[in-house]
Design goal:
- By secondary structure, this protein is of the alpha/beta class.
- The protein has a single domain, classed as Metallo-dependent phosphatases (Purple Acid Phosphatase, chain A, domain 2, 4-Layer Sandwich), CATH 3.60.21.10.
- It contains eight helices and twelve strands.
- The strands form two sheets. The protein has a six-stranded mixed sheet with strand order 1-6-7-8-10-9, covered by helices on one side. Strands 5-4-3-2-11-12 form a six-stranded mixed sheet.
- β2, α1 and β3 form a beta-alpha-beta unit.
- The protein is globular.
- 34% of the residues are buried.
- The model has no long low-confidence stretch (mean pLDDT 94).
């Protein structure tokens, strides 16, 4: 289990893209504020980018700009950690080296103060969405990824655009309940981890839910917001507990 001696911050679902400069500016302001606050660690819980087609696209000016912002935070002394989301699961060691960031597995435990926190992107908890889970298994396989990354960048961009369009169409046909987390999956994850705190993103439904585990133990599920021109948040954990940071006052 990772141990953070002081303060850790958590964000998810920024969906950074050249077409949304307001969110990029807010992200830059958040990183500067995190450095100024001397946070010990920043955890990015997936979907940092709207899409990521491979580390060989790091030379793209926008991607290089984001990498430089993260490197500046790492150089200031804040440790950076990343859990892949459903949009940026191809982010690899090249990007990690360029930014000073450490990649983590799909499920991770981190100790902050006296609290053990379970971290996830959140998509694996949406077990009722069977078509998505099947798609996830496909694209997370080494065979699919090797074949995709062997294609030219232009072909990959075209393929991702087509996948995103099909995803939007599929979402319109799904109920909100199917696309949310499954309560039994949440309880199972908490019980397996031994944690009483869970932080995740993915669902774009920020909030905090109390969950009763066996033997009457109460756990909390913290859900991070997605970022857009009108909203965005972060969570901060320390010895004093977990609190939500509204980023509405940052540049954007």
């Amino acid at each position: 289990m990772l141990t953070i001696p002081g303060t850790a911050r958590f964000v998810s679902d920024l969906h950074l893209t050249p077409g949304n400069e307001a969110v990029t500016r807010r992200f830059a302001a958040f990183l500067a504020a995190t450095a100024q606050a001397r946070a010990d660690a920043l955890f990015i819980l997936g979907d940092l980018f709207e899409y990521w087609i491979g580390d060989d696209d790091l030379a793209d000016p926008f991607n290089a700009r984001i990498a430089d912002l993260l490197r500046q935070l790492a150089d200031s002394g804040t440790r950076l950690f990343f859990i892949a989301g459903n949009r940026d699961f191809l982010l690899g060691d090249g990007f990690a080296r360029a930014t000073g960031m450490q990649r983590l597995g799909d499920v991770e435990k981190v100790g902050v103060g006296d609290t053990a926190i379970l971290l996830m992107h959140g998509d694996t908890l949406c077990t009722d969405d069977l078509p998505y889970q099947e798609f996830r298994r496909q694209v997370r396989s080494s065979a699919w990824q090797d074949a995709f990354l062997a294609r030219p960048l232009t072909e990959r961009r075209t393929e991702v655009a087509a996948l995103r369009q099909r995803s939007r169409e599929a979402m319109q046909a799904k109920s909100a309940q199917i696309m949310d987390v499954n309560p039994a999956a949440v309880r199972a994850a908490l019980e397996a981890s031994g944690c009483t705190q869970l932080i995740h993103g993915h669902t774009h439904r920020p909030g905090c839910e109390n969950i009763t585990l066996p033997a009457g133990v109460t756990a909390e599920r913290w859900v991070l917001s997605d970022w857009d021109a009108g909203r965005g948040d972060a969570l901060e954990a320390s010895a004093a507990g977990i609190r939500r940071i509204d980023l509405g006052d940052l540049s954007g």
